[in-house]
Amino acid sequence: MHESHLIEPVIKGISAHARKEGAKSISKVRLKVGTLTGVKEDSLKETFAVLAKGTILENAGVEITFFPGSRIEVISFDVE
Known about the structure:
Elements (H helix, E strand, L loop, with lengths): L3 H17 L5 E9 L6 H12 L8 E7 L4 E8 L1
Parallel strand pairs: 1-2
Antiparallel strand pairs: 1-3
């Protein structure tokens, strides 16, 4: 699953930052995804849901905006 090694560091980074700030859960994550990564939106969301199980992001919705590039950027996330 190509998406796994793209999404795993995103989940770890958001989790670490949110916990440091005292967040209990994250309700939404906004990502900017480069089209050159070769991932599809549905596949990326499915991979995110699988990898987020058991984490602070387990119930988070994911908004994706594509741009011409080769990386994934975290734009923002909503904490509870």
